[in-house]
Amino acid sequence: MEVRVEGLTKRYGRVSALDAVGITFPSGALTAILGPSGCGKTTLLRSVAGFVPVDAGRILFGKDDVTQLTPQARGTAMVFQNYALWPHMTVFDNVAYGLRLRRVPERDIRARVEKVLDLVEIGQLEGVLGRKPAALSGGQQQRVAVARALVVEPRVLLMDEPLSNLDAKVRQRLRVEVRRLQKAVGITAIYVTHDQEEALAIADTVVLMNAGRVVQVGAPPEIYFRPASAFAAEFLGVSNQLRGTADPGALAIGGQRLPYAGPVRGPAIVVFKASDATLGPTGPPAAAPEGGAVLRGTLEERLFLGAVYRHYVRIEGETVMVDAPEPAEPGPVAVRVPPAKLQVYAAPAG
Amino acid sequence: MSRGVARRSLRAALAVVAFLFIFAPVSSLVIWSFTRRWFWPHPFPQEWGLFYWKQVLQGDLFRALHSGFLIAVVVTVLTLVLTVPLAYLLARYPIPAKPLILMVFLLPHAFPQLPVFVNSTTLLYRVNLGGKFWGVVLIHMVGALVYAVWTMTAVFKSIPESLEEAAWNLGASHLKSFFSVALPLATPGLIASTLLVFLYSLDEFTGTLLVGSPFVLTLPVYMYRTSVGYELQVASIAALILMLPGILLLVLLERFLKAEYLSMFGRL
């Protein structure tokens, strides 16, 4: 079931939570909506579920226009950030709730509940059916919540930051499982998250949003390696931004000039990832590898992060981060960035 | 060492004072209830006996107890039937003038009780409810609604909305989600609210006396009449009997009125 939103607009007072958003969520794929808090991603998900009436635009499930339908009539199933399991019901009653509403015979209900709990790999847990949610760990509760959503065989699975209340280890394991489940069931899934790593790891397609608009849509590697704007680049990785001015053939950052052959003119933002840059001794600019950038700066601080050392280098009044496997000593350094890894964007007006 | 002793004796002294404050009046009630004759200046009654207990148990007390309980039950049921839906709406929907609505229920308590009830009495007599069972029920509800509305609104507010959204999302109607999710989760608060209203109605005096006299008799009114008639023994017995449901219900209340509901009052 393909899901499409067209020109979706929602205002809260003067603030546009959604500003003419148009996205196609391909059938059977997991699409992550990624963005900072307040970007409208949760509003988008809740409007697809029917909890938020929109001011303009259409929501289509396949050929059905569901824009005016109540949440009950849409046939979506949502997994909530706080799990939203009913604390006064057992796990069995929680999962069976949707089936009972559909008047499934009681003996079929039992079989289907057990099957879906096996699917989310919690069916083997001792006496799980009779337990109350409070007697389960956070990760187990979220598995039950996913089971409750999947058991009714919804047209669309909606997940609202489902893993963000879990600790890092459980989160990383469940990430793998959510993807496995979604592929096994073959359901169209929309997954909202503010965690770029999670979005890149889990999704077939990533939709990047900011301030109520779609900024970029693409496969995870595409989004990661070819961010379409300074915002995207900044949001998608541990990135550095330097302000400069682009002229034909050269890029001025403070008092330093870099070779530049791109299309941007005027005030520009130069972006590169901390992991793409390397540190070396200061030398003549001629030492640049194949036209890449060399920026002179001062190494001010160094943190050991486990896998790498993160160096904080001051360049022309701004601080950039460089990750390297070997520690460098404080003092004057040259930051080298390969040409393909250096992104230049026009600075936004104002 | 000496500080420990000082602290312990201070605590003991406080306990004695508290004990006296709470139990001295009650103990005089107990003594009076078993008194046959007691004249000044004797420290204790000259003659003890069960005479008045017998007299009371054969007399009007049961009528007062019976009608008092009946009124309290009716008041409680009606108040909750009105309040539960109202409180749910107040807690869940962006109703305009919400603080105003909540304030309205507080108003009868904001003014001196006597003028409020005197005015209500003349009003109720005009609509032929003075001295009637339903007139007393009505005047009790005016006072009791505020407890029920405020507690129940706080209770419904403390239930995360996503729990109901999850039910709607799976296809449950609003009515179905209310009865299968919101109401069961609100039950402890509902019980607390029931107890508050029931106790209020059972103990209400001013309104009952003014509106209900002379035909509607509840325990507090009965107690008042007997003590005004200097039947201190009878009044003491009535007071002791009236205290029992109160103590029992307060013990229950303490179990059901969760701290988180009370903290919600500030956020209404």
3D architecture notes:
By secondary structure, chain A is of the alpha+beta class. The two termini of chain A are 43 Å apart. In chain A, helix 3 crosses helix 4, helix 3 runs parallel beside helix 5 and helix 4 crosses helix 5. In chain A, the strands form four sheets. A six-stranded mixed β-sheet of chain A has the order 6-7-8-3-9-10, with helices on both faces. Chain B is an all-alpha fold. Chain B has a two-stranded antiparallel ribbon with strand order 1-2. Chain B is globular. Chain B starts with a helix and ends with a helix. The model of chain B has no long low-confidence stretch (mean pLDDT 85). The chains are: A alpha+beta (350), B mainly alpha (268).
Cα Rg of chain B: 23 Å
Assembly type: heterodimer
Strand content of chain B: under 5%
Overall pLDDT confidence of chain B: 85
Pattern of helices and strands of chain A: EEEHEEHEHHHEHEHEEHHEEEEEEEEEE
Give, in spatial order, the strands making up the sheet with the most strands of chain B.
1-2
State the total count of DSSP E strands of chain B.
2
